[in-house]
Design a protein that fits this description.
By secondary structure, the protein is an alpha+beta fold. Helix content is 37%, strand content 30%. It has a seven-stranded mixed sheet with strand order 1-2-3-4-5-7-6, sandwiched between helices. Strand 3 and strand 4 form a beta hairpin. Helix 1 packs across helix 3. The longest helix is centred in the first third of the chain and has 18 residues. The two termini are 28 Å apart.
């Protein structure tokens, strides 16, 4: 597995990451309906283009199997393709982010307990909770920072 910081965000890479995002979300965000996923999906390409640091992890065939986005020291997003979950790729990406970008905080959906548990395992703790996500939707967020 190879971790790469992406500077050139091509249309084909964005398309690959969008498919990966969808695979991950459908497996982990069970509180979202199909319609809600389709609605959120419209905003993903823009988020991928705008996040200051976009980092991917590729398999031996140079196919992205996970990615994260970082703004300053905040983890904006971390997604692993459903087929590759549970293999330590999220851990590799997050460790890379902590070591190379000083990642020290993030927000996670409260209704995604596997992600919350993962971040706790990686040394993060909840310091704040909101009733709604950053778009005002009724999905509580947990704000976590590195202990």
């Amino acid at each position: 597995m190879k971790i790469t910081e992406v500077k050139d965000r091509t249309a084909s890479l964005t398309e690959q990451l969008l498919k990966l995002w969808e695979s991950s979300v459908k497996a982990t965000h069970l509180f979202l309906s199909e319609d809600e996923i389709e609605n959120i999906k419209k905003y993903v390409p823009q988020a991928l283009k705008e996040v200051p640091d976009l980092i991917i992890i590729e398999n031996e065939n140079q196919i992205p199997v996970g990615f994260m986005g970082i703004a300053e020291q905040h983890l904006e997003m971390l997604f692993i393709s459903n087929e590759e979950r549970g293999k330590g790729l999220g851990k590799q990406l997050l460790q890379y982010g902590i070591e190379n970008h000083s990642v020290n905080d993030l927000a996670v959906n409260e209704q995604n307990p596997l992600a919350k548990g993962f971040y706790e395992h990686m040394g993060f703790e909840v310091y704040k909770r909101t009733e709604h996500d950053e778009q005002g939707n009724p999905y509580p967020l947990l704000y976590m920072r590195l202990k």
